[in-house]
Request: fold
Amino acid sequence: MLNLNAKLIQKHYNKSSVVGRLKQLDFIYREIANRTADRLDYIKSPPPSVILDIGSGCGIDAELLSNRFPESLLIQLDFAVNILKDNQRKNRPKASWLKKIFGVPIFGLPGHHNKCNQYLCANALNLPLQSQSVDIVWSNLCLPYIDVNSLVDYFKEIYRVLRVGGYFLVTGLGVDSLQQLRDIGLQTFNFPDMHIIGDHLVKLGFTHSVTDVEYINLEYDSLEQLLDDIRIVGCGEAILSQSFMQKEIKSNASMTAPATSNVIASRASLPAAYLPTAFLPKTYLSKKNYQQLKSKFNELMNSTNKFILTLEVYYAHAWKERVHSTLPEDKKIVQFYPKK
Reply:
C-alpha cells in the first residue's frame, strides 16, 4: 500500500505554478460541492454561527457556503498557506469611493461574499480550534489526502470541535475511483471503503450517520491531458508502478530525456506527494515505457475516442448529539445521583 507524505503534499500545493493551475480542475470540486450542498436542503437546523471548511482549496466551497449562510463565521482551513493567501486576495472586498473616503469596508458589495471569513493554515488531523466551537464542519475532497491509517484521527478532530447539535458533511473518493489508471499501468492510493468510514463514525459517537455513493465519469482526449491533471491535483498518490518502471529506470547521468519529456519525463514532473521514497533522486521514464503507457491508454478509449476516468464519490453526513467519552476497555463511567 502506498503512503501519503503530508509534508510533500504541502510543499506541492504551495508552489505558485500549482496554485495558478488548480482552476483547470475547479469543475470537479464545484460539481461535487453543489451535489453536497443539495443535501443541506434536507437538514433542518438553526442557522449556524460558525462553519469550518476543511481543505478549502481555491474557495469554491466557501463561496457556496457564504451565499447560503451569509451571517455565519466561515473558517477556511487548508494545509497550503499560498492557496489560502490567493483565496484571501480574491475575496478581498472591492474598493469603493465610500471606503476610500471613510477608510472602512462596506459590506454587501459585489466580490465580498461574507463579512466574517477567516483563514487558517493548519493540519486537519490537529485542528487549532477549541472543543465544541463549530456548528457545521464541511470538507469537500480533503479525505483523499488523508492516509487510511489516519481516518479515525480525522473524524475524531471533527467530533471534538463540533458543538452538541452540530453536524458535518464530508466527501471523498471510494475504492472504485481511478480504476482506469490502474488498468493502464499507473498505481493509485488505496482509497477507503465507504462502509469502513460508516463503522468509524458509529464508534466515535456520531449519530444519524448517512453515507451514499455517486459515480462521475471524466472524459479525456489524450494521455497528455490526463497526465497534466494528475500532476496538478492527483487525488491519491497516482504514481508509476514500480513493476512498470523497474526495468527501464535509469539515472539522469546515463540518458537524455525523450522527446515527450515535457509530458512525463522526470521525477520532478509529478507532484512530490505521488512519489515513494524508494525512487532514485533523478530518474526518467524512458520513451519505450511512455509508448507502452500510451498504447494501453489508446486501447481503453471508447467508440467516440474518449478515455473515461471514473470517480466513485461518497458523501458522509452525521450529527453530534452528545459528548462522547472514550475510556479504556476495562474502565466504566460511574454516575452519582443526589439522594432523594
Observations:
- The chain has one domain: 6-320.
- The CA atoms of residues 7 and 273 lie 8 Å apart.
- DSSP finds 13 helices and eleven strands in the chain.
